[in-house]
Specification:
alpha+beta, 5 helices, ten-stranded antiparallel sheet
């Protein structure tokens, strides 16, 4: 039995040595957004507090193995902006005006930047298929990876998701606070941690 265990350990070590790198991620993800109000385009940031993340894999040789095929399901009735009163208003007059109280997303592609400078953060593009208000679109997002932290950011237009009624609803509810202007473009982002081990070569993606 001892010989068998040693053989399996040796094979495992050789396998990972051949790839040169193992990336490991936890099964959780933070999803944030920033909406904008007034003609001065003042940003109001928030975070979804109920996000179910289903990773494509918990470990892999590169970002593509980890992320492509990963999914998130977001409960839009559970949010935080740091202001409970504002949270209630957003849920009631925006998110509950949508046709569904969940947002579904799936990572369908990821591509690194052609050139990378050693010692600098790794960057690239990631395509995320987002379903909101019964509309599905593929949104390009820029990613940034440094010191174990992976973050992606992008922008959506609420009109593209047929959410004009929900936008009009929150604009009416917050008309004075927003000075009559609630923007349709919303910055979105997600982040997670990735531990790189046994890395003797460049991370491919």
């Amino acid at each position: 039995m001892k010989k068998i265990l040693l053989s399996l350990l040796t094979l495992f070590s050789i396998s990972h040595a051949a790839t040169g790198c193992v990336l490991v991620q936890p099964a959780d993800m933070n999803v944030t957004w920033k909406a904008y109000k007034t003609l001065g385009k003042i940003g109001v940031g928030g975070q979804f507090t109920s996000v179910k993340y289903t990773p494509a894999a918990l470990e892999g040789k590169n970002f593509k193995e980890l992320f492509v095929g990963s999914k998130v399901s977001i409960d839009t009735t559970k949010i935080t902006t740091g202001n409970p009163s504002r949270d209630e208003t957003l849920v009631k007059f925006f998110f509950q005006e949508l046709k569904a109280t969940t947002i579904e997303a799936k990572i369908i592609n990821i591509k690194k930047t052609d050139k990378h400078t050693k010692g600098k953060p790794r960057t690239g593009m990631i395509d995320v298929e987002i379903t909101m208000n019964e509309q599905t679109l593929t949104i390009p997002m820029k990613y940034h990876y440094s010191e174990g932290h992976f973050q992606a950011t992008g922008t959506i237009d609420l009109f593209d998701f047929a959410a004009s009624d929900a936008l009009a609803s929150i604009n009416k509810s917050c008309y004075d606070l927003h000075k009559g202007k609630t923007w349709s473009d919303v910055s979105i982002g997600f982040s997670t941690t990735i531990e790189a081990t046994l890395c003797n070569v460049e991370i491919k993606k």
